[in-house]
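Re: the pair you flagged

First of the two:
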Amino acid sequence: MPRPPEPEPEPVEEPLEAPRESLNPALQEALQYADHVRGADAPALAAEISSLDKAKDGPPERRLYLALALMHTRQPADTARALGLTQRVLEDGALAALHPLARLLEERLLQQRRLEEQLDRQSRQLREAQQRNEQLSERLEAMRTLERSLNAPR
């Protein structure tokens, strides 16, 4: 009896190679800052945002740092503000070294904004459904009261 042919092994994809040159210092600082604010608690994050907000004349990288801090508050207004700051970084040719991180951040913020909008829609739908449910319960109770009054002995 002939043996069935053995399946050919699937080609193994090579992992992406990391760039051979070292990271740009500005990009490396931004990544370290992102890691710093990622682990910050709410009061520390608020203090960080406040200090970055006050430093209006600071380095242009400050906009990206502020966006990185704002994205961790999980507030829709802060998400929109962080997105605006990130887009300003992308428009600034002097910050070209930070553009890859800014593009990644922009994509993440757009996704976060879509999710926040979806959550808002679902919350609104839930409130409306609860209101309808309460109205129907009230009507049902009114009908039961009417039924009891009609069935009551005279």
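Second of the two:
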Amino acid sequence: MLMLLLSAGPTPAQNSAQGTITLRASVPATCAVSLSTENISLNLSSAAIVPVATVEERCNAANGYTVSLSSKNGGALSSGTSSIAYTLHYGDSSSTADGNLTAGRTVSGTARQTVLSVSVPAGTQRQAGDYEDTVTIAIAAK
């Protein structure tokens, strides 16, 4: 009997089974913008492009993202009923006549820094007053 058990050896399994598991993960698109500004007062008597802020953009959207700038006063510095048109410059892009600008971006995986500048046409005969405008910078996934 001992001989029979030794010569028989292990028998292969007649049935086999397997299982699968599906792994899933999700990374949401996250976009953020931050500003580094200085307290700059524009010289309204000479024409110049004046840097007013450095904008840091971060967005991990797979299809890229857009950065939009919009002027509360339609591209003008206002003081009461008087206004002075200006142009925004964001990197290589410039605002339209209404003070809006949109820049398309591809995803890079790292933060991108872009200089925001303003240019005002030179003028010596300006109405007295304190002029201002508010520029909103928004970032959105494509």
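Helices lie at 2-8.

-B.
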